[in-house]
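Good morning C.,

I know you're traveling, so I'll keep this short. The sequence:
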Amino acid sequence: MHHMSPQTEACVADCTACHQVCLSTAMGHCLEMGGQHVEKAHFTLMIACAEICQTAATFMLIGSPHHTHICAECAEICEQCALDCERLDGMQECVAACRRCAQSCQQMAA
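The tokens, ready to paste straight into the viewer:
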């Protein structure tokens, strides 16, 4: 594997964690709760967030120069996901993971 800066390694870790949390929360907590937790806009956003996080991690891992704009998009979607998850019960872990990832990705995009 090519050498990654500590900042890149941290961002890959944050993206990977956010992917896992969003996916497992959507498929576990949200499906169990029903109601607002499974409304199309919310559920789609959570899955989109998980996907862009995985994609951003992949772009950094392969050393693609495109990682900067993928990370910018990832930060935007994570921030949106955090805001949306904040209004629902039991979503604190998701909110925290999204905020951490958004901050990390903003730095990578800069």
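Safe travels,
E.
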